[in-house]
Amino acid sequence: MANEELEALRVAITETDNDLLATIAKRQKLTHQVAETKIKHHIQVRDQVREEQLLVRLIKQGQEVGLDPHFVTKLFHVIIEDSVLNQQSLLAQRANPEASLPINRVAFLGEKGSYSYLATQKYFARRSGELVEIGCKSFPDIIATVESNEADFAVLPIENTSSGSINEVYDQLQHTRLSIIGELTHEINHALLIHEDVELGKIKTLYAHPQVFAQCSHFLAELGNIEVKPCDSTSAAMLVVNELKSPEVAAIGSEGGGRLYGLKAVKSKLANQKENHSRFIVVARNPIKVPLQVPAKTTMIMSTVQSPGALVDALTVLKDNDIAMTKLESRPINGNPWEEMFYIDVEGNIEDGPMQKAVESLRDMTRYFKILGCYPVEDVAPTRVAVASSLTQ
Ligand SMILES: C=C(O[C@@H]1C=C(C(=O)O)C=C[C@H]1O)C(=O)O
């Protein structure tokens, strides 16, 4: 009897969920039309005034039907983020028809289940065309695969909130002819993964990528006397544990990835930082044009002349042109001891006037200067509304 009652309610919930999906799909189609209109009339994709107005109205209307303002705000932040990213992606694809391929061959580190694999899936979900995944063993292999035209794109992790910059990838960028055409941030939730058929006993050996060990150093210190074995990728670590089927071994990787290898997660959130995210870049053989209606970022590398204040002078050029720097990184130059290559991320489109002026000055005053790429910003900062005040309106 209780079961029948529950079943009937669940049928009604299923129907409501289906209606919700249909409504969200309808909204998405409308925002697609909005993007077409913005292309035609050269209007900026993001309109935070409009977002604020709609959030205030929805919070109020939600409250009238008994919905918590925080819930409504959170829900619509997700919906708006998706809408903005889809519109940006459409504009970028229209501006670069030659880069919109029927088949996207994408190189990444590891195999199915690695974090790079998950990031690849996420980035290419918004692009048209079929996805062909090409798993690689190392960062140089990934770059070579795109340079030799065996792949069209590569997805590479560049920095992580727990372990910082991924130097190996920065070093690869110094020598490649490839351009950065996109970026994305992906949550990295490290879990302890063991084979499904074994009981969690005394783990003696842990398999993972060296980056993972770096991000989980506090957890490893707690574990004490355990042998850590570095692998080429998190998916390679999962494969080893799957094959060994021993209660004494475990891998660290994503829970979803582990499932693909018959592994279960027995502990999660293992990284030193609670908020553990990685930023990935997407590279291709040719640069792309970013429409001026889309927020853009530009990455450049340079080595300055060896005189006091040379780096300060270079950074002053950015300041004088009102260009905001979002990241500054330095790496040694191979073969030139004690000389540094600076990697600079700035907000701005390479086709914008102030950016062109700054680039011209930087080319003149540095020993080496190269633009690594200009690409759409994937980070959609949520529009904040004062929840309490909107309720009193
Ligand atoms: C859909 C639009 O584009 C963006 C997305 C919005 C949304 O999904 O509601 C609102 C404003 C814009 O930032 C729009 O301009 O109306």
From TrEMBL:
<keyword id="KW-0456">Lyase</keyword>
<keyword id="KW-0584">Phenylalanine biosynthesis</keyword>
<feature type="domain" description="Prephenate dehydratase">
    <location>
        <begin position="105"/>
        <end position="285"/>
    </location>
</feature>
<dbReference type="Pfam" id="PF01817">
    <property type="entry name" value="CM_2"/>
</dbReference>
<feature type="binding site">
    <location>
        <position position="38"/>
    </location>
    <ligand>
        <name>substrate</name>
    </ligand>
</feature>
<dbReference type="GO" id="GO:0009094">
    <property type="term" value="P:L-phenylalanine biosynthetic process"/>
</dbReference>
<feature type="binding site">
    <location>
        <position position="51"/>
    </location>
    <ligand>
        <name>substrate</name>
    </ligand>
</feature>
<dbReference type="GO" id="GO:0004664">
    <property type="term" value="F:prephenate dehydratase activity"/>
</dbReference>
<dbReference type="InterPro" id="IPR045865">
    <property type="entry name" value="ACT-like_dom_sf"/>
</dbReference>
<keyword id="KW-0963">Cytoplasm</keyword>
<feature type="binding site">
    <location>
        <position position="10"/>
    </location>
    <ligand>
        <name>substrate</name>
    </ligand>
</feature>
<feature type="domain" description="ACT">
    <location>
        <begin position="299"/>
        <end position="376"/>
    </location>
</feature>
<protein>
    <recommendedName>
        <fullName>Bifunctional chorismate mutase/prephenate dehydratase</fullName>
        <ecNumber>4.2.1.51</ecNumber>
        <ecNumber>5.4.99.5</ecNumber>
    </recommendedName>
</protein>
<dbReference type="GO" id="GO:0046417">
    <property type="term" value="P:chorismate metabolic process"/>
</dbReference>
<feature type="binding site">
    <location>
        <position position="83"/>
    </location>
    <ligand>
        <name>substrate</name>
    </ligand>
</feature>
<dbReference type="InterPro" id="IPR008242">
    <property type="entry name" value="Chor_mutase/pphenate_deHydtase"/>
</dbReference>
<feature type="binding site">
    <location>
        <position position="87"/>
    </location>
    <ligand>
        <name>substrate</name>
    </ligand>
</feature>
<dbReference type="InterPro" id="IPR002701">
    <property type="entry name" value="CM_II_prokaryot"/>
</dbReference>
<keyword id="KW-0057">Aromatic amino acid biosynthesis</keyword>
<dbReference type="InterPro" id="IPR002912">
    <property type="entry name" value="ACT_dom"/>
</dbReference>
<keyword id="KW-0028">Amino-acid biosynthesis</keyword>
<dbReference type="InterPro" id="IPR036979">
    <property type="entry name" value="CM_dom_sf"/>
</dbReference>
<dbReference type="InterPro" id="IPR018528">
    <property type="entry name" value="Preph_deHydtase_CS"/>
</dbReference>
<keyword id="KW-0511">Multifunctional enzyme</keyword>
<feature type="domain" description="Chorismate mutase">
    <location>
        <begin position="1"/>
        <end position="91"/>
    </location>
</feature>
<dbReference type="GO" id="GO:0005737">
    <property type="term" value="C:cytoplasm"/>
</dbReference>
<dbReference type="GO" id="GO:0004106">
    <property type="term" value="F:chorismate mutase activity"/>
</dbReference>
<feature type="binding site">
    <location>
        <position position="27"/>
    </location>
    <ligand>
        <name>substrate</name>
    </ligand>
</feature>
<keyword id="KW-0413">Isomerase</keyword>
<comment type="pathway">
    <text>Metabolic intermediate biosynthesis; prephenate biosynthesis; prephenate from chorismate: step 1/1.</text>
</comment>
<comment type="function">
    <text>Catalyzes the Claisen rearrangement of chorismate to prephenate and the decarboxylation/dehydration of prephenate to phenylpyruvate.</text>
</comment>
<comment type="pathway">
    <text>Amino-acid biosynthesis; L-phenylalanine biosynthesis; phenylpyruvate from prephenate: step 1/1.</text>
</comment>
<feature type="binding site">
    <location>
        <position position="47"/>
    </location>
    <ligand>
        <name>substrate</name>
    </ligand>
</feature>
<dbReference type="InterPro" id="IPR001086">
    <property type="entry name" value="Preph_deHydtase"/>
</dbReference>
<dbReference type="Pfam" id="PF00800">
    <property type="entry name" value="PDT"/>
</dbReference>
<dbReference type="InterPro" id="IPR036263">
    <property type="entry name" value="Chorismate_II_sf"/>
</dbReference>
